[in-house]
Amino acid sequence: MSESALKDLNTIPPTERKSESSSKASLTKPPVDNANENLEEWQKKKSCPTLVSPPVNGNQTLSVSSGVEIGNAEVEYIESENLSDLEDIGTCLKNLLSGLDSKDWVMVCDALNNVRRLSLFHKEAMLDMLGDVITFVAKSLKSPRSAVCKTAIMTSADIFSAYNDLIIDSLDPLLVQLLLKSSQDKRFVCEAAEKALIAMTIWISPVALLPKLQPYLKNRNPRIRAKAAMCFSRSVPRLGAEGIKTYGIDKLIQVAASQLSDQLPESREAARTLLLELQNVYEKFHDLMPAATVSEQPEMGSWENFCQSKLSPLSAQAVLRVTNIAREGLVS
């Protein structure tokens, strides 16, 4: 701003400045100068369900069932079971990527909710463009605007439930952002991210998911490690006893042992839960093994022998302390 402009601004009485500022703050959209452009935007939005109601007194409002007011707009967070079907699938698909990439955050939220509708009601129709859609959803997860971020989190959960293992090659950008969001301070964003991570462990097979989670168990951020450990611990039991044996109890016990000494209690608790699951599975198969096999392979003997054969002395001691305490608690 030039010196003359600053001088002119300083000569404006405070009351006039306040009035000018408040009048600007009440506007969420600039005046429409081009009627044709406005008509085209209206026709695009008309074909897809929208969360935007007409401006009232210059304020743009989003209809609310469970929402948060942001500026002069209120954001509705619709639960999956309350989403309605699309009226015009073809038009929505045509405008979907441009909506997700819009600079208008309201249009982005509308597009994200349309991704959810397509996932729930017409998942085959979006399959060819799913990779591009996930890229834009991951971009929205990084948005500094909480409304966009939370809507993108809810969209991620619906994508998990609809597409299961089909998204595994595109999972990484969603996973890292969900781990970050689930460990941040904004409670309503954090809770939504937690729910999305739970949905991920439910709908994506553990055989596909565990290798994706494993690198985050060594992340430099302790909160990310903790959230990844919790997901890992939730996912392993879904393998079942046979699946755990096939995946490798020795691999899994090493992962769990490394988390026992982690900085955050969430990581340590996830490790304890996983170790108890592994112990139960190991002892189930051990009881079914012939005595000759056990004598030939000492590491396949007791749980204590197994831990000592697969872990360092200190790690084995820590693991046995955890599992013995749990067993003593059950006996008492």
TrEMBL record:
<keyword id="KW-0206">Cytoskeleton</keyword>
<dbReference type="Pfam" id="PF12348">
    <property type="entry name" value="CLASP_N"/>
</dbReference>
<dbReference type="InterPro" id="IPR024395">
    <property type="entry name" value="CLASP_N_dom"/>
</dbReference>
<dbReference type="InterPro" id="IPR021133">
    <property type="entry name" value="HEAT_type_2"/>
</dbReference>
<dbReference type="InterPro" id="IPR034085">
    <property type="entry name" value="TOG"/>
</dbReference>
<dbReference type="GO" id="GO:0005881">
    <property type="term" value="C:cytoplasmic microtubule"/>
</dbReference>
<feature type="domain" description="TOG">
    <location>
        <begin position="76"/>
        <end position="317"/>
    </location>
</feature>
<dbReference type="InterPro" id="IPR016024">
    <property type="entry name" value="ARM-type_fold"/>
</dbReference>
<feature type="region of interest" description="Disordered">
    <location>
        <begin position="1"/>
        <end position="41"/>
    </location>
</feature>
<dbReference type="GO" id="GO:0008017">
    <property type="term" value="F:microtubule binding"/>
</dbReference>
<dbReference type="GO" id="GO:0000226">
    <property type="term" value="P:microtubule cytoskeleton organization"/>
</dbReference>
<dbReference type="GO" id="GO:0031110">
    <property type="term" value="P:regulation of microtubule polymerization or depolymerization"/>
</dbReference>
<keyword id="KW-0677">Repeat</keyword>
<feature type="repeat" description="HEAT">
    <location>
        <begin position="209"/>
        <end position="247"/>
    </location>
</feature>
<protein>
    <recommendedName>
        <fullName>TOG domain-containing protein</fullName>
    </recommendedName>
</protein>
<dbReference type="InterPro" id="IPR011989">
    <property type="entry name" value="ARM-like"/>
</dbReference>
<keyword id="KW-0963">Cytoplasm</keyword>
<dbReference type="GO" id="GO:1902903">
    <property type="term" value="P:regulation of supramolecular fiber organization"/>
</dbReference>
